[in-house]
Design brief:
heterodimer, A: two-stranded antiparallel ribbon, 70% helix, 3% strand, B: two-stranded antiparallel sheet, 15 helices
Chain lengths: 291, 358
Amino acid sequence: MQVLQLLLSGIAQGCIYGLIALGFVLIYKATETVSFAQGELMMLGAFFAFAAMSMFGMPFWLAAVLAVIAMGAFGVLLELVVIRPILGQPQFSIVMLTIGIGYVARGVITMVPGIGTDTHVLAVPYKDQVWKLGGLVVNVEQAVVIAATAVLCGLLFAMFRYSKLGIAMQASSQNQLAAYYMGIPVKRLNGLVWGLAAAVAAIAGMLLAPITFVHANMGLIGLKAFPAAVVGGFGSLPGAIVGGLVIGIVESLAGFYLPEGVKDIAPYIVVLIMLMVKPNGLFGEKLRKKV
Amino acid sequence: MRFIFKTSYAQDITLARHGGHVFWYGLLGVLLVVAPWVVPEYWLAQLTFVLIYAIVGLGLMLLAGFTGQFSIGHAAFLGAGAYTQGVLANMGVPFPVALLAAAGLSAAVGVVVALPALRVKGIYLGIATLSFGFIVEEVFARWESVTGGNAGLHVKAPHLFGVDLGSSEAFYFVCLVVAVLSTLGILNLLRSTTGRAFVAIRDSEISAQSMGIHLARYKTLSFAISAALAGLGGALYAHKLSFISPDQFNIIQSIDLLLLVVIGGLGSVHGAFLGAIFLISMPQLISLSKGFLPDVIGQAPGLQGLVYGLVLIAFVMFEPLGLYGRWLKIRTYLQLFPFYRKGLFKRQKSFTKSDRLR
């Protein structure tokens, strides 16, 4: 029973990592850049929902939908203004650029009067409720995280599989130049991918908010989603979720069975082992550069 | 406009290309030597920090700017050096021996990190070093019998042949000597075959490999030298602060170091120094400007992060060669006056080079 309980909380935490990792993977697949600002986008989404609820008195669901839409638009804007001008430059420049975006986001949020410097509780309707299944105690918050992740994955899967947009995105992520020749508007798609990633990050933020709190540094959890993305294989969407789950479960079990302090670094140990054993991740494709 | 007429091959690799170099660097050297008698105590301390960060920056510059391997966990090497120095100095080991031990241990740690780095590249390498940085920070915090844990570690003042090097003037000279030696070392390295191999790896791994450069060996070497310099800087850092704790070597420090090399100018030795000056003077400028800003902005804890972020974004977008690149442009403008053309340094448009070719 103990193990089941640990697994459950691990899975819930893992879903959050997975959702953030999904953002990395989306952006990486489409534009081959890595965004270090994903955690900060998540933080902004959570703050947006919190501000909408506390300052304008909106109900949670309305605020959540608004936050997702707003963050999506923000992502598109970000790509247009900052990322697009330097596409094609070395990867390292873009990594530094996204680190800069993260710094700015964290700095700006502390300047919003009355909001930025404190920690807040996001008043979700399902706060502090508990289900009892036999001996298993299920926090509704955790159940919501898991359910929402499952639904979101289903939606994304359907989009990439059946919609014209999704197929165009797949094509452009496989070969941008060829996609461009086939008449796919690659630039616009890249913008949309950033929007999609930001929207997913906003959802992750609102799911995480009831479990931790809303504060300016909550985005640092994004650094734990990197291991998730690598374990799953950086270019694979299902891999991101599976990687997130692996990291979440390992972390949760390590926190209980291993000495204090191991919990925080368990994800990084896992990722280092992964990089040594199977650098392409669980679901990554084996690709080799040929000359 | 100066034309250098080369009459021998040795002229291609001389450190001082012409009389101007000799004059200006000589002047800089003289100024740095007389600084302790001219500059007030506070600014001398800042200058010492600039030198220390420049040593660390040289290491990261070699790795990121010249070998093209970027490390998001460089604070781990800094910390390894600082703790080695701290522990050895408290045991009474002579200063130079402890300094060499700090550099050596950091280099050894660098080799260990380079092992996974040989198999991965690009972003995977970044994540491997990031993970490593987190693990090392946790080790500093948990290995209490040696590092003192989160309570931190006090470091005794350095001694050499019975002379106390702890005073700020004496320690400034120690840092100056180490910084000059490491700079000369790096410059020498870069004009040797090894340095050329590093640059070749940065520009294209495949062509480097096909020209017979042993990738694994040179990448490991680059990591080791870079880590050794970071360790050296860390050792001086430990003495300068005389108190070290794990949170000085966290991810923020690592990112600050990356900031240093990017803003200074990737791929230039000058960049390490310019970046160090930026990193040390920026907090001062920010706290000076606080008075002029409205309270909402001026008193916010995130002000420094915001400024760093904006500066970083601006440099990556508009001046990818950093402060040194800006200086190059100004110098060229003056040299060519009035024939400077606007498009002289224009960035070439290029396609994203995919790592995923099949």
